[in-house]
Amino acid sequence: xQELSFMKQTTLALMNGQQCAAHDPHRPVWHLAPAxxxxxxxxxxxxxxxxxxxxxxxxxxxxxxxxxxxxxWQSTDLVHWQHQPVALLPGADYDKHGCYSGSAVEENGNIxxxxxxxxxxxxxxxxxxxxxxxxxECDEYDKIGPVLPLPVGYSxxxxxxxxxxxxxxxxxxxxxxxxxxxxKVLLLRSTDLYKWQMLGEIAGSQLNGMGDFGYxxxxxxxxxxxxxxxxxxxxxxxxxxxxxxxxxYQAGYLSGKLDYQAVHFTHGEFxxxxxxxxxxxxxxxxxxxxxxxxxxxxxVPDQDEQYHPTIRYGWIHTMTCPRELTLCDGKLxxxxxxxxxxxxxxxxxxxxxxxxxxxxxxTSAELILVPQGLFNVCFGDAMQLTWDxxxxxxxxxxxxxxxxxHRYWRGTVQHLQIMIDRxxxxxxxxxxxxxxxxxxxxxxxxxxxxxxxxKLALQYWPLMSCLE
Length: 468
Ligand code: FRU
Prior knowledge:
Blueprint: H1 3-22, E1 37-48, E2 51-59, E3 69-75, E4 82-83, E5 99-107, E6 110-120, E7 126-135, E8 141-148, E9 154-166, E10 169-178, E11 183-190, E12 197-204, E13 216-225, E14 228-236, E15 252-259, E16 264-267, E17 271-272, E18 280-286, E19 292-297, E20 315-316, E21 323-328, E22 331-336, E23 348-353, E24 360-361, E25 364-372, E26 375-379, E27 383-387, E28 391-397, E29 404-410, E30 416-421, E31 424-429, E32 434-439, E33 447-451, E34 455-462
Parallel strand pairs: 1-20
Antiparallel strand pairs: 1-2, 2-3, 3-4, 5-6, 6-7, 7-8, 9-10, 10-11, 11-12, 13-14, 14-15, 15-16, 15-17, 18-19, 19-21, 21-22, 23-34, 24-33, 25-30, 25-34, 26-27, 26-33, 27-28, 28-29, 30-31, 31-32
The structure holds beta-D-fructofuranose.
């Protein structure tokens, strides 16, 4: 499809679909969701001249993964976001089957987008080009074109450039599937963003002692926290284990030390970033005050997507809330950004035994729970959280089979911060030591009920909508 045609079809989809999507009772009131169609990865997350920009993988034409362009929001407070002109539309020879994921950098005071142009052939094969686009005076993005063809030795699955500046150079990580079906992360260097030199593989399956670790790694993101390098990556093809790797694809991180000269990343084990049902393809950025922020996609590719009830209203998926990252004893902590506190309405404070706790309206709400003892939390009729003293289990009925499905976190629960928005729950355990992010679809206005003998200290706030 040509770009102009894509734009016309997008306008039509919005004219016909936006009202219906807006009336969905499951539609979030303070999370980012597509006006119509399908949203997936966050892209190009950056703060520029004091303004936050978040681009995203968007198929405005249907609730499937066929036609990807880059939608664009901006915000001055990380809470209220405004739509911006669509930033990238597929249609050029080098991106005709999708403007896939990528990142944004500031160069000479301007925003440059770096993204993967996806091209498919009739025989089912594909290739990719890493491409640039530059912001113009109308806040639209002009394509510059490809700066890197498919590297030798890799399949057509090489994508998701994340670019950063280190000392006097630009660096890029790319997710890749090599010709032996091993997932890898590639490191490249450039002085000007236009000419890229391949440095080599810095992590992946069958590398640095990882053993078999998936056939494809998507959406890498490399950054420094303190004196540690963290590499976020999304391996595909890991086998489910008892309590981990239970989603269709994983999102996690490796931390260690990157030697830019030797092109060697010495890292520890892979840790999942989230223990919930829906979390994938997160992207981070560092903002002016030094914080490293992360936003993820609250969805997983190929995981029961066609059963989401929001499809009836013509839209699917949301982002997670923006989170602040910190490292503590080598472990990555995530906490909701403090800016979200401005959404808090009147506070309720309660103390007592879980069994006696009052039911709470959790349509859009934040809770802080400090439990002593075993407890169980019901989120309306659609999800439950249970702690048995060693294992925290999140339980819901599968959207596809209606059978119970579980996700787990093993540890000692001391503090829970729970952020709820109509059809999503984000549970921050022990101030961000772990997170469980999930969609859930209550059939009526949900109440939170607590059970168990645990002594509880509870704080509750309804959260205001950002839609008005
Ligand atoms: C991850 C992903 C990326 C790709 C994009 C396409 O969800 O598959 O690898 O660039 O989505 O929308």
